[in-house]
Design brief:
29% strand; six-stranded mixed beta sheet; 37% helix; single chain
Length: 627
């Protein structure tokens, strides 16, 4: 079954509600005031079976200029517009305004209904239709079919229904596999059920028992029950009108301008970048405006970018708005409420007065609508590694399978790289690699005797988080871009030279300290033994510590082989004794307490000994003295 949403449009008292009643038998004017005044004030809803395999939900909008806010609340989710123009009056102000809004909203399909034909003759109808065609020129309805109808006599209703079916078949089916979203146009409490919200399902599928989020607050809710024009169901899909009984929120949390969404989709912020198609002239920077998107109205101020034409604007809102990249809307002046233009959201603002080339590419990709290009543009705009979850959120309400398929294709084509659940453009990875190479080259130039640059410092200078750094680090190591020198990173050629230097130092240390007994070694002693200058003595000392030849314990430093000998002597002691004190270790080694105490603390720390008050007992590592 195919489902479409048909929305009416047109001047007040041109017979929109009467036409729907004649088509469906449903009175869409439900409010007492509407019945008393004879005009629509708020949105009305009906259902129309167009064929065995196709059903339409109809949204009837008010025509009076005072209720344009309500009209726009019903326009955002329609697939097919039905512009109604009374034959006895022809094109009127709200006819033109509604037509302009539909056109700027990006509606692509529609028909023109000339109503109240029972009030005119054939000659007059010809003149009216000629005038209408002139008003439609340059809009999406320029080539739309015309239907002459009388809701009073019934003339033309059968033909109208047939045309609606034909045009509805041309409408692309909404994606049922995309993330679920429904903008709320009504909220009320049903006795015995609780909170109920209604709206048009823009995308995705909803089932009884589903967990959703209520935006913009992000309140978790659960679907308790579903109805579609009075019929209960277990599942409803994109293109259907829905009444959803929910738990987790009451009427104080519910209302028009909110929407239900699949979790982990949509972004919330008060500053958004947008594309604007101006109806007339652009407004001056800082102009207070109204943005209508979905069923919501948001007040804010519009600002331009220093380096871009007025096609690209930034909207600073007075309260947070949740939306998705690519969402369409209508911009009106705050007061008087004149139509300014149509909008498409690019994304949450970068907080820069200039628009980057990357963001401009994203804007163009969103306009074209190709998912492959949108995904590439999002990753290019991000200029960092992001998770798949973040990519899904920033790409708008597109199907997950479509986005993941695009990522796979981009990786295959060499445009994108993926490490684990993190993705970025190949260009960004190359930029990151060049930056790392430069940092390492500078480090080697400045400190040629050092092993390299600390991994922690490299991570900080690159501005990467722990997880991303480890993933990218693995790639660099695998590709032979970097060499690992203990806790440092180095370029491969420097690592080769440094390893020879490290080896020479190790040999010199063995010759100098292998049989020296228990002594505390410092850089001064290194300089004397190796015949080095003070600066080089200090660097050689640091290299020996990093290389593990010298073991640092507080203020003292002992040669590694000496530590192994001490451990063996401790093992021999524990073969005959259950405990060992610091004083006993001092006497056994014929050294001072100043050296014996840090030695004992080192062995405690590395589990060679286990402290028991002032005494030590043998630890697990004494069984393997190669540690």
């Amino acid at each position: 079954m195919k489902y479409v949403i048909i929305g009416t449009a047109g001047h007040v008292d041109h017979g929109k509600s009467a036409l729907i009643k004649a088509l469906t038998g449903v009175e869409t004017d439900r409010l007492k005031e509407e019945k008393l005044r004879g005009i629509s004030i708020d949105l009305g809803f009906a259902s129309l079976q167009l064929a065995e395999d196709m059903t339409a939900g109809i949204v009837d909008v008010p025509g009076h200029e005072r209720f344009l806010k309500n009209m726009l609340a019903g326009t955002g989710g329609i697939d097919l517009a039905m512009l109604v123009i009374a034959a006895d009056e022809g094109v009127m102000p709200q006819t033109r305004e509604h037509l302009a809004m539909l056109n700027l909203y990006g509606v692509k399909h529609g028909i023109v209904v000339v109503s109240k034909i029972d009030k005119t003759d054939a000659d007059w109808l010809e003149l009216v239709e000629e005038d209408i065609r002139g008003a439609l020129a340059g809009t999406f309805l320029a080539q739309a079919p015309f239907c002459r109808v009388s809701a009073i006599t019934g003339e033309g209703l059968t033909a109208l229904k047939h045309v609606l079916e034909e045009e509805a078949r041309k409408v692309p089916a909404r994606d049922r596999m995309a993330p679920f979203r429904l903008w709320i146009d009504r909220a009320f409490t049903a006795h015995g059920y609780g909170a109920v919200v209604t709206g048009s399902i823009l995308s995705g599928t909803v089932r009884v028992g589903d967990s959703l989020l209520l935006y913009p607050a992000g309140i978790p809710i659960r679907v308790r029950g579903l109805e579609w024009h009075g019929e209960k169901g277990e599942v409803l899909a994109a293109g259907q009108r829905a009444a959803i009984n929910i738990t987790g929120a009451d009427l104080t949390n519910l209302g028009r301008s909110m929407f239900l969404s699949a979790p982990e989709r949509g972004e919330t912020d008060i500053i958004w970048d947008m594309i604007v198609q101006w109806h007339d002239e652009p407004v001056p920077p800082g102009t207070r405006v109204r943005l209508h998107t979905g069923t919501g109205e948001y007040i804010g101020r519009a600002y331009g970018f220093k380096n871009q034409p007025a096609t690209y604007m930034r909207l600073l809102l007075e309260e947070p708005m949740t939306a998705g990249a690519g969402d369409r809307g209508i911009l009106r002046l705050y007061s008087p409420q004149h139509l300014l233009g149509g909008t498409m959201l690019i994304g949450v603002s970068r907080r820069s007065r200039k628009m980057s080339c990357e963001r401009e590419l994203l804007a163009k990709a969103l306009t074209d609508g190709n998912c492959y290009d949108v995904v590439l543009a999002v990753l290019t705009d991000e200029q960092q590694f992001i998770t798949m979850e973040t990519l899904l959120r920033k790409a708008g309400y597109r199907a997950e399978r479509e986005i993941k398929s695009s990522v796979t294709a981009l990786i295959k084509n060499g445009k994108v790289v993926g490490f684990g659940n993190y993705y970025a453009t190949t260009d960004y990875l190359e930029q990151l690699t060049r930056k790392l190479k430069f940092q390492l080259a500078e480090q080697h130039k400045r400190y040629p005797e050092k092993a390299g640059l600390s991994r922690e410092i490299a991570k900080q200078q690159l501005g990467l988080g722990d997880k991303v750094f480890e993933l990218v680090f693995g790639y660099w190591q695998q590709q032979g871009i970097i060499a690992v020198m203990g806790s440092d990173l180095a370029l491969p050629d420097h690592a080769g030279r440094h390893q020879i230097t490290q080896g020479d130092l190790a040999a010199q240390a063995e010759a100098a300290f292998g049989e020296a007994g228990i002594i505390s070694i410092d850089s001064t002693m290194i300089g004397e033994k190796f015949n080095l200058s003070p600066d080089n003595s200090k660097r050689a000392f640091e290299m020996l510590v990093k290389g593990g030849q010298l073991i640092k314990m507080g203020d003292i430093c002992v040669y590694r082989k000496t530590m192994q000998n001490i451990a063996r002597r401790m093992q021999e002691h524990f073969q005959e004794n259950a405990t060992l004190t610091v004083a006993e270790l001092r006497d056994k080694l014929n050294t001072s307490r100043k050296i014996a105490l840090p030695l004992m603390e080192y062995f405690d720390l590395h589990k060679y000994t286990v402290r028991d008050g002032d005494k030590r007992r043998a630890g697990s590592k004494l069984k393997d003295l190669t540690e």
